[in-house]
Amino acid sequence: MAISEMTPTTSGSGEHATIGADELRSFARDGYVIARHFFSPQEVASITSEVTRLHRDNLDLPGCFKRVAIEDATDPLQAYPRMMHPHRQSGVLQSFLLHPRLGVALGQLLGEPAIATQSMFYWKPAGARGQALHQDNFYLKVHPGTCLAAWVAIDPADRENGGLNVVPGSHDMDLFCPEEADPEVSFTREFVPVPSGLVPVAPDLAAGDVLFFGGNLIHGSEPNRTTDRFRRSFICHYIGESARELSRWYRPIYRFDGSEVTVDDATGGGPCGDVVVGGPH
Ligand SMILES: O=C(O)CCC(=O)C(=O)O
C-alpha cells in the first residue's frame, strides 16, 4: 500500500485529542493509561468496515492472515485469526495507524516523535483462547528505550469476553525470559508469570477507548468466555525516533508524515541468553 493511497481521517473527539497531566502521571506510575472515547463511533465503524472487508474477501494475504471457513473450523481462531500488519492491505487502516491524534498522544507519552512499526487486528470471537501474559519488547527488541502500544477497543472489552489484563509496576522491570504458556488458554507460546508483589488489573474498556502501554509492561488476556460476543481490537505498536535498533520483522516503519525510516536490526539474544527466540509479535 503506497502512502499516497492513504485515506486521511480528521473527524473525532477533539477534547480527547491529547493526554492530560493526570494521565501522564498515571502512565509513569503504572506503565499504562486509558484514553477514554479517543476514537469516535464513526471512526471505530471505519476500522470495523475495513477489517470486515478483508475478512470477507479472504484473499491470500501473506503475512496478514488466512482463515478457514467457519463451518470447517475446529477452533474459533481458525475462522477469525488475528491479522498481522493489516495497514499494509488497507489505506484506511494505515491512516488509523498514523492518525494525527495518535501521533500527538504518543509524542506526549514517549517524550519524542513516534514511529509506527506494526498493526494487528484481533477478532477474538466467543470461545477463542486468549494470549498469555508477555512483554512486547521481548519481540520488538527496541533499543534504546522500548516500544509503546496503542490498544484500540473496537468492542466493549471486559473480564467475560477476555479484555486486556495489565500488571502495573512491571513496566519498570527488565524483560523476563518467558516460560511455556498453557495451550488450552493461550494461542501464543510464551508466558511471563506475574512478579511477586504485583497484582494484575483488568480494566473495562468501551469501544473507541485506547489503552496505551509500554513495551516492558506484562500484559495478556484470558479466553473469551462468552457465547455470543466478539472482543475485537486494533493494536498498533510504535517506537520513539531516538530508537536505534528494532527486530527486522517490523520493516517497513513510518513517521507520522508517512515517510519511511530505517533503523538497525536488533542484535543479541535478549533475556533468554544467546538463543534467538521471539519471532514476529
Ligand atoms: O489483545 C489481546 O488479547 C492481547 C494483545 C497483546 O498482548 C498485545 O497487543 O501485545
Brief sketch in words of this structure:
The protein is an alpha+beta fold and 281 residues long. The protein is built from six helices and 15 strands.
Molecular structure report:
- The protein is α+β, with helices and mostly antiparallel strands and 281 residues long.
- The chain has one domain: Jelly Rolls.
- The chain is 19% helix and 20% strand.
- It has helices at residues 21-30, 41-57, 76-79, 91-97, 100-110, 137-140, and strands at residues 32-35, 83-84, 114-122, 131-134, 148-153, 164-166, 179-180, 190-191, 210-214, 219-221, 233-240, 245-246, 253-255, 260-261, 264-265.
- The strands form four sheets. Strands 1, 2, 3, 5, 9, 11, 13 and 14 form an eight-stranded antiparallel sheet that branches. The chain has a three-stranded antiparallel sheet with strand order 4-10-6, with no helix packed on it.
- The longest helix is centred in the first third of the chain and has 17 residues, at 41-57.
- Bound molecules: 2-oxoglutaric acid (AKG).
- The site of 2-oxoglutaric acid has 12 residues, from β5, β10 and β11.
Count of helical regions: 6
Sheet/helix structural class: alpha+beta
CATH superfamily: q2cbj1_9rhob like domain
- What is the CATH-assigned architecture? Sandwich
Main sheet specs: 8 strands, antiparallel
- The CATH class assignment is Mainly Beta
Task: Round the Cα radius of gyration to an integer and report it.
Answer: 18 Å
Oligomer: single chain
Q: Tell the overall outline.
A: globular
Query: What is the string of helix and strand elements?
Result: HEHHEHHEEHEEEEEEEEEEE
- The N- and C-terminal alpha carbons lie at a distance of 21 Å
Count of extended strands: 15
**What percentage of the residues does DSSP assign to strands (E)?**
15-25%
Kindly identify the CATH topology. Answer: Jelly Rolls
Catalogue the ligands. 2-oxoglutaric acid
